[in-house]
Amino acid sequence: MARPRTRRSVAIIALVLSLAGVVSIPAPASAAFSQPLSISPAGYDSYDQQQAYDRQGDALFVWVRESHTYPHPRYVEFKSRSYNGRWGTTTTLSPAGQAPHSPQVAVDDDGDAIVAWRAYNGVDNSIYARRISKSGTLGPLIAVSAGGMQAHGTYVAIDSDGDAVVTWAERHDTGAVFPMMRRYSSSGTLSPAVVLASTPTAAEPPAVAYDREGDAVLAWANDNVVQARTLSADGTISELKTVSAPLSPIDRHFTAKVTVDRDGDALVTWRHWSDQGQSTRVWGRWVARDGTVGNVRQLTPALHTDVVNHSVAGDLDGDMLLTWDLFSTGHLYAVSISPTQTVGQPVLLSTWGRLHTVRVDDDGDGIVVWQGKGLNNSVGSVEARRVTRSGTFGTTEVIAGIGVDPTAAVTHEGRAAVAWERRFQVDLQIQVSVDPYFVTTQGIRS
Fold first, then answer.
1. Are strands 99-107 and 347-350 parallel, antiparallel or unpaired?
2. Contacts of 108 (CB under 8 A, 6+ apart)
3. How far is Cα 185 from Cα 190, in angstroms, rounded to an integer?
4. In 3-state terms, what secondary structure has residue 122?
5. What's 145's DSSP letter?
6. Are 429 and 46 in contact (CB under 8 A)?
7. Hey, what long-range contacts does 285-293 have (CB within 8 A, 24 or more apart)?
């Protein structure tokens, strides 16, 4: 498949064809989202959707499908969408007898993917993974976590060549919970599982992100500290680093996230709860490619004391965008963060925005998607605002008047796909809306 043309080349082609009277191609910035399309099968409840793009603009959507009939068997399913809008068939990934939850998907440059999920197999809660080739061929089902342990949560990341990392948190009989990781190479080789930290013993599943060279950064909240390690392309794991600053032992940290630029410099963010102030804010710390740890920064304003959720994304140059919402008001905010670690002024995106996600492309253009209020405040809506690299936000777009739990993905050139759940009379379905791809008789697309 030919690689997509750049924005500049597309714009030039569009201008030439337009002047010649051949075709009119709208500018990507003014493109509206497509009408919602249900992609999950009718007659079931489907949820826990995630999606990812490759460098060609082809997308992969995954979700959990649950039967209405007792004992309500569940399966992980996926469906592909090509850059020109062609949908593949719905395919089942997980075997019978599992009760899967929360699948995660990552796709490499060429469209080969890995999907990981947690499932109860009748004895343990374990982490499973499976590869999907660009052509849709399924790899073998892999049990990532060890039997006899209780695993929960999982993240998956993949580098440009298809080497992947799967992470999870593992609970032992003693009650201790450890952060875990395992490499899953593009050739199908599975490395031994690694315990990333043995103390404290209350870890969340590690977040992980790759740079363009195949090096990764992993970070996780572990009770009253945030910890991190780097993973080189050759599999070398760095020494354990404490990312959070020394604080009261009764303070807590939650939901660490990692954003990495092309050179491997990372920003680790997390929500910090202060016992003294009875407040929750977003803090962050930079981790350089060589392992140098910067200063801890409070990234949300001092007056924002009740942060509920946060999302962060960055481009290849290290420009980042952080979003968060407040419990008391439901207000949704965003702030830009420069490669020099300069934090901009907060922008109010919506007076009501929950379950938000921010995604940006290689150049820093992107989108913020959230669940807004719906009809009579009884159901949700799916709303979005686009953002440029300079931090300029567009107006609010209502993608769907009815929908909850939206997720988003963008191509490296800024095309977005938004998915959400919508309840119909008897079904809970996954719906999708995408930026339109304009196709001419000459095969040129924007």
1. unpaired
2. 54, 158, 159, 160, 161, 162, 186
3. 7
4. coil
5. S
6. yes
7. 285/226, 285/243, 285/244, 286/341, 287/217, 287/219, 287/228, 287/230, 287/241, 287/243, 288/264, 289/211, 289/215, 289/230, 289/263, 289/264, 289/265, 291/230, 291/238, 291/239, 291/241, 293/241, 293/243
The rounded distance, in Å, linking the Cα atoms of 329 and 326 is 6
Give the separation between CA 31 and CA 28, rounded to whole angstroms: 5
Task: Please provide the DSSP assignment of 288-330 as one string.
Answer: -TTS-EEEEEE-S-TT--BEEEEEEEE-TTS-EEEEEEETTT-
CA distance 45 to 175: 33
SS3 for 206? Answer: coil
Phi, psi torsion values for 106, nearest 5 degrees: -140, 145
3-state secondary structure of 33: coil
Per-residue pLDDT tens over the stretch 57-106: 999 999 999 999 999 999 999 999 999 899 999 999 999 999 999 999 99
Output the DSSP codes for 318-372.
S-EEEEEEETTT--EEEEEE-TT--B---EEEESS-EEEEEEE-TTS-EEEEEEE
Residue 144, both tokens: 């990532």
Sheet holding 164-171, edge to edge: 150-158, 164-171, 177-184, 194-195
Query: What is the value of pTM for the model shown?
Result: 0.89
Structure-token pair, residue 160: 């440009």
pLDDT digits (tens, 9 = 90+) for 159-185: 999 999 999 999 998 999 999 999 999
